[in-house]
UniProtKB/TrEMBL annotation:
Residues 1-20 are annotated as: Disordered. Its main location: membrane. InterPro entries: ABC_transp_permease. Pfam families: BPD_transp_2. It is a multi-pass membrane protein. GO terms for cellular component: plasma membrane. PANTHER family: ABC TRANSPORTER PERMEASE PROTEIN YPHD-RELATED, ABC TRANSPORTER PERMEASE PROTEIN YPHD-RELATED-RELATED. It is found in: Cell membrane. It comes from Microlunatus antarcticus. The lineage of its organism: Bacteria, Bacillati, Actinomycetota, Actinomycetes, Propionibacteriales. This is Erythritol transport system permease protein.
Length: 374
């Protein structure tokens, strides 16, 4: 009688457990990169605090926190996509589309074959609008994961689709007055909730904190998080280990759409209007926040903490440029230069890391050859 033994499946590559050498190396690299971003943030704050007495006032800090929260929530969704080695250029347009859907629902829906107009309640409007954002993400994920389309081209196309749908819904008009609702229609309370400031903080800041905590737990304490890092580090190895690569890829784009949808609602409440250009440049700010926070555009490396720090860097920089009176055109130039610098530093770090690993591998081979010869 013969017996067979089954070898255990290979483990997917990823950021090793904290107790292992690989895990300690990963954590050390993350701390170093995040420390670099934190130092940049402190330098930015110090410079603009000297240049303007209004920079660190309570009112301006509240404004910064609110804007940072919008960018950070979108950036957290972008983090998941980048960890997987992808990109989502449609998040800004999804923010605008979500707000346009919500504004249209506040106006009321003309029921077909009747002359009746239905006015949904606020919670229904919010849920349906955010669901539209998730639908955009699901379509992106389906095209990328199931049809193997390139993430850059797919989400770039979706950027135009979502922005076009936004313009169709708004038809060249801003939706403003209808957002307050009418008591007799039972659709009031939108601003009461989404423009509130519990404990002195804007509601958007609390939503940012909630998303940051949940995403941090998901990435560090669940199989989904480990699988996500694994697919970004080495997709083939993860697939051979039984990781559901396609399902994970679809879900992260849905979550990215969720983040964009939530920000669409929050931003609409912030400006008390739904406009066709809402969400413009959000995708660039999100990518910048993720990269400045230490994530690798190639996938497999990045943290929630670093992304939040990156969002604060972008937020404090943008606000400081406005405070000191820098032209809006130069603001874009400077922000773009910061993005390029962050990507360049990341690439240089990866090149140095690869060369160091190559030298170690060569040294190990030579050591093994010498031992055999002896």
């Amino acid at each position: 009688m013969t017996t067979t033994s089954t070898a255990p499946a290979p483990q997917a590559a990823g950021p090793g457990p904290a107790g292992t050498k690989a895990g300690r190396s990963f954590n050390l690299n993350s701390v170093l990169v995040e420390g670099r971003a934190l130092i940049a943030l402190l330098i930015i704050i110090a410079i603009f605090a000297v240049l303007s007495d209004n920079y660190l006032t309570a009112g301006n800090l509240t404004t910064i926190t609110k804007q940072v929260a919008f960018n950070a929530i979108v950036a957290l969704g972008m983090l998941l996509v980048i960890l997987n080695g992808g990109i989502d250029l449609s998040v800004g347009s999804t923010v605008g589309l979500t707000a346009a859907v919500a504004g249209t629902l506040f106006r009321g829906l003309n029921l077909p074959l009747t002359e009746a107009i239905m006015f949904p309640q606020v919670w229904v409007i919010v849920v349906l609008s955010v669901a539209v954002g998730m639908l955009v993400g699901w379509v992106n994920g389906l095209l990328i994961a199931r049809l193997n389309l390139a993430p850059f081209i797919t989400t770039l196309g979706m950027l135009y689709v979502a922005r076009g749908l936004t313009e169709v819904l708004l038809n060249g008009q801003n939706i403003t007055n209808e957002l307050s609702g009418q008591p007799y229609l039972n659709n009031t309370g939108f601003f009461t909730v989404f423009a509130s400031r519990p404990l002195g903080l804007p509601i958007s800041a609390w939503v940012m904190i909630l998303f940051a905590v949940v995403f941090s737990i998901v990435l560090t304490r669940t199989p989904f998080g480990r699988w996500l890092y694994a697919t970004g580090s080495n997709e083939r190895a993860a697939q051979l280990s039984g990781v559901p690569v396609k399902r994970i890829r679809t879900r992260i784009y849905v979550l990215s759409g969720l983040c964009a949808g939530v920000v669409g609602i929050l931003q609409m409440a912030n400006i008390s209007s739904s406009t066709a250009d809402l969400g413009t440049y959000y995708e660039l700010n999100a990518i910048a926040a993720v990269v400045i926070g230490g994530a690798a555009l190639s996938g497999g490396r990045g943290t929630v903490r670093g992304t939040i720090i990156g969002a604060f860097v972008i937020g404090f920089l943008a606000n400081g440029l406005v405070i000191v009176g820098v032209s809006p055109f130069w603001q874009k130039v400077i922000t773009g230069a910061v993005i390029i610098l962050a990507v360049a530093v990341d690439q240089i770090q990866q090149i140095i890391g690869r060369r160091r690993n190559a030298r170690r591998a060569v040294a190990a081979v030579r050591q093994g050859t010498g031992a055999k010869a002896g």
